[in-house]
């Protein structure tokens, strides 16, 4: 799929995390960039967020990795900050996790936009749209589809977008499904700005509780999620986090000790 995109012309530095370029925006610059992309008359920018979990998925899934190279990637969470510090000696300028960044962007965009939602249970999608409307009442929020459609219905969902004339599309199907779905079915005429938002609708609809503010400030929201959903989250955090750190340490060794460019490949040790 060939997106008309302004990503490559963006004047922003990037850091490679496990071989994937991640943009180094400050918070205000990221908001300004996304707002500009949503306001352009032509083209399309797709924004995804890289955290330790989907970095691990990307490591083993070549198709997913290839898709992410066609999107603008923002750093999400303490894991990628640790990886950045290992390799580059410093964390990213800002933690641009989608759960906080997207609501902030909706407020930042002061001109009314038509914003579509795809994802979540039917009642979650509807409640998220209503809560977004309370958060930023000058925008129009449209539930294009919940997230419980079959792959065979994807064309119908995409056709539904054809007549909506959206400015922004938020897709919350979870990684890597959402990024793959967007790459396959979303075209530039569907929306200028596409945001792959993961579990954002669940949080906005209050279907899943967020961590207390003090844990968020300490960058420990992942620990809160593990405590409230241990059966679902233990593999992601107990196994996934150390695995991501090990892979990041190997990248740091290759780049900083051996002085070689890091190249992702099947022959890597971890």
From TrEMBL:
Pfam families the record matches: Glyco_tran_WecG
Keywords: Glycosyltransferase, Transferase
InterPro entries associated with the record: WecG_TagA_CpsF
Superkingdom, taxonomy of origin: Bacteria
PANTHER family in UniProt: PTHR34136, UDP-N-ACETYL-D-MANNOSAMINURONIC ACID TRANSFERASE
Protein name, as recorded: Exopolysaccharide biosynthesis WecB/TagA/CpsF family protein
Lineage: Bacteria, Pseudomonadati, Pseudomonadota, Alphaproteobacteria, Hyphomicrobiales
